Amino acid sequence: MYLQSLYIENFRNYSQQKVEFNAPKTILMGNNAQGKSNLLEAVELLATLNSHRKVRDRDLIQSGASIAHICGKLERAISTDSLKLTLRRQGHRTVNLNGENLRRQMDFLGVLNAVQFSSVDLDLVRGSPDVRRC
Ligand SMILES: Nc1ncnc2c1ncn2[C@@H]1O[C@H](COP(=O)(O)OP(=O)(O)OP(=O)(O)O)[C@@H](O)[C@H]1O
Ligand SMILES: [Mg+2]
Asked: For position 110, which CATH number holds?
Protein backbone atom coordinates (compact mmCIF):
# COMPACT_ATOMS: atom_id res chain seq x y z
CA MET A 1 0.00 0.00 0.00
CA TYR A 2 1.25 3.48 -0.69
CA LEU A 3 -0.09 6.99 -0.82
CA GLN A 4 -0.34 7.80 -4.49
CA SER A 5 -1.67 11.34 -4.26
CA LEU A 6 -2.78 13.95 -1.80
CA TYR A 7 -5.16 16.83 -2.39
CA ILE A 8 -5.67 19.50 0.26
CA GLU A 9 -8.04 22.44 0.21
CA ASN A 10 -8.13 25.31 2.70
CA PHE A 11 -5.78 23.37 4.95
CA ARG A 12 -3.26 25.49 6.92
CA ASN A 13 -1.44 27.71 4.39
CA TYR A 14 -2.66 25.72 1.35
CA SER A 15 -5.69 26.96 -0.61
CA GLN A 16 -5.66 24.12 -3.12
CA GLN A 17 -2.76 21.76 -3.58
CA LYS A 18 -2.40 18.43 -5.29
CA VAL A 19 0.72 16.34 -4.76
CA GLU A 20 1.48 13.13 -6.66
CA PHE A 21 3.94 10.75 -5.04
CA ASN A 22 5.32 9.03 -8.10
CA ALA A 23 8.81 8.17 -6.86
CA PRO A 24 9.69 5.39 -4.38
CA LYS A 25 10.88 8.10 -1.96
CA THR A 26 9.89 11.74 -1.67
CA ILE A 27 11.92 14.49 -0.01
CA LEU A 28 10.09 17.73 0.71
CA MET A 29 12.29 20.77 0.31
CA GLY A 30 11.29 24.38 0.83
CA ASN A 31 11.85 27.62 2.63
CA ASN A 32 10.99 28.16 6.27
CA ALA A 33 7.24 28.34 6.81
CA GLN A 34 6.56 27.22 3.26
CA GLY A 35 4.33 24.36 4.40
CA LYS A 36 6.50 21.22 4.56
CA SER A 37 5.33 20.22 8.03
CA ASN A 38 1.76 21.15 7.16
CA LEU A 39 1.82 18.69 4.27
CA LEU A 40 3.08 15.92 6.54
CA GLU A 41 0.45 16.90 9.10
CA ALA A 42 -2.23 16.37 6.44
CA VAL A 43 -0.94 12.83 5.85
CA GLU A 44 -0.82 12.24 9.61
CA LEU A 45 -4.46 13.33 9.90
CA LEU A 46 -5.54 10.94 7.15
CA ALA A 47 -3.72 8.10 8.88
CA THR A 48 -4.60 8.77 12.52
CA LEU A 49 -7.25 11.53 12.57
CA ASN A 50 -4.82 13.26 14.95
CA SER A 51 -2.15 15.88 14.71
CA HIS A 52 0.99 15.67 16.83
CA ARG A 53 0.62 19.45 17.18
CA LYS A 54 -2.44 18.94 19.40
CA VAL A 55 -4.59 21.64 17.88
CA ARG A 56 -8.27 22.28 17.39
CA ASP A 57 -9.81 21.71 13.97
CA ARG A 58 -10.31 25.44 13.50
CA ASP A 59 -6.53 25.93 13.71
CA LEU A 60 -6.07 23.47 10.84
CA ILE A 61 -8.47 25.33 8.55
CA GLN A 62 -6.98 28.12 6.49
CA SER A 63 -7.56 31.54 8.01
CA GLY A 64 -10.75 33.00 6.55
CA ALA A 65 -12.15 29.66 5.34
CA SER A 66 -14.92 27.73 7.04
CA ILE A 67 -14.23 24.24 5.73
CA ALA A 68 -11.12 22.26 4.80
CA HIS A 69 -10.62 19.00 2.94
CA ILE A 70 -7.80 16.48 2.99
CA CYS A 71 -8.09 13.79 0.33
CA GLY A 72 -5.76 10.91 -0.35
CA LYS A 73 -5.66 8.15 -2.90
CA LEU A 74 -4.08 4.86 -1.84
CA GLU A 75 -2.72 2.34 -4.26
CA ARG A 76 -2.95 -1.27 -3.12
CA ALA A 77 -1.90 -4.52 -4.74
CA ILE A 78 -5.37 -5.22 -6.10
CA SER A 79 -7.38 -2.06 -5.45
CA THR A 80 -7.35 1.64 -4.71
CA ASP A 81 -8.92 3.51 -1.81
CA SER A 82 -10.05 7.13 -1.67
CA LEU A 83 -9.96 8.82 1.71
CA LYS A 84 -11.44 12.19 2.53
CA LEU A 85 -11.43 14.09 5.79
CA THR A 86 -13.53 17.25 6.06
CA LEU A 87 -12.85 19.74 8.83
CA ARG A 88 -15.31 22.45 9.78
CA ARG A 89 -14.76 25.67 11.70
CA GLN A 90 -18.23 25.16 13.14
CA GLY A 91 -19.51 21.63 13.34
CA HIS A 92 -18.08 18.15 13.41
CA ARG A 93 -15.47 16.68 11.12
CA THR A 94 -16.63 13.97 8.74
CA VAL A 95 -14.78 11.09 7.12
CA ASN A 96 -15.47 9.51 3.78
CA LEU A 97 -14.07 6.25 2.39
CA ASN A 98 -14.50 5.46 -1.30
CA GLY A 99 -17.32 7.97 -1.65
CA GLU A 100 -19.25 6.82 1.40
CA ASN A 101 -19.57 8.90 4.56
CA LEU A 102 -18.61 6.75 7.55
CA ARG A 103 -20.76 6.95 10.65
CA ARG A 104 -17.95 5.72 12.88
CA GLN A 105 -14.63 7.55 12.57
CA MET A 106 -12.99 4.40 13.96
CA ASP A 107 -13.64 2.74 10.60
CA PHE A 108 -11.40 5.33 8.95
CA LEU A 109 -8.41 4.37 11.10
CA GLY A 110 -6.04 1.77 9.76
CA VAL A 111 -6.89 2.37 6.10
CA LEU A 112 -3.79 4.49 5.55
CA ASN A 113 -0.90 3.03 7.53
CA ALA A 114 1.90 5.45 8.29
CA VAL A 115 4.91 5.48 10.58
CA GLN A 116 6.13 8.82 11.83
CA PHE A 117 9.66 9.38 13.01
CA SER A 118 10.90 12.83 13.92
CA SER A 119 13.49 14.62 16.01
CA VAL A 120 11.35 14.07 19.11
CA ASP A 121 11.93 10.32 18.69
CA LEU A 122 15.72 10.56 18.69
CA ASP A 123 15.88 9.10 22.19
CA LEU A 124 14.96 5.80 20.56
CA VAL A 125 18.45 5.66 19.08
CA ARG A 126 20.45 8.09 21.23
CA GLY A 127 18.82 7.74 24.63
CA SER A 128 20.00 5.74 27.60
CA PRO A 129 19.51 1.96 27.41
CA ASP A 130 16.48 1.97 29.71
CA VAL A 131 14.77 4.48 27.40
CA ARG A 132 15.72 2.57 24.26
CA ARG A 133 14.65 -0.81 25.60
CA CYS A 134 11.41 0.03 27.40
N1 LIG B 1 -4.72 27.89 9.77
C2 LIG B 1 -3.77 28.46 9.03
N3 LIG B 1 -4.12 29.32 8.02
C4 LIG B 1 -3.17 29.89 7.24
N5 LIG B 1 -1.85 29.67 7.37
C6 LIG B 1 -1.46 28.85 8.36
C7 LIG B 1 -2.39 28.19 9.21
N8 LIG B 1 -1.70 27.41 10.10
C9 LIG B 1 -0.41 27.58 9.79
N10 LIG B 1 -0.25 28.44 8.75
C11 LIG B 1 0.99 28.88 8.13
O12 LIG B 1 1.78 27.77 7.78
C13 LIG B 1 3.13 28.20 7.77
C14 LIG B 1 4.00 27.20 8.48
O15 LIG B 1 4.00 26.02 7.74
P16 LIG B 1 4.95 24.80 8.15
O17 LIG B 1 5.05 24.69 9.63
O18 LIG B 1 4.43 23.62 7.41
O19 LIG B 1 6.31 25.30 7.54
P20 LIG B 1 7.64 24.48 7.25
O21 LIG B 1 7.88 24.50 5.77
O22 LIG B 1 7.58 23.15 7.91
O23 LIG B 1 8.69 25.43 7.96
P24 LIG B 1 10.06 25.09 8.75
O25 LIG B 1 11.12 24.90 7.71
O26 LIG B 1 10.29 26.31 9.57
O27 LIG B 1 9.82 23.85 9.59
C28 LIG B 1 3.21 29.55 8.46
O29 LIG B 1 3.39 30.54 7.48
C30 LIG B 1 1.85 29.67 9.11
O31 LIG B 1 1.41 31.00 9.17
MG1 LIG C 1 8.53 22.33 9.56
From this structure: 3.40.50.300
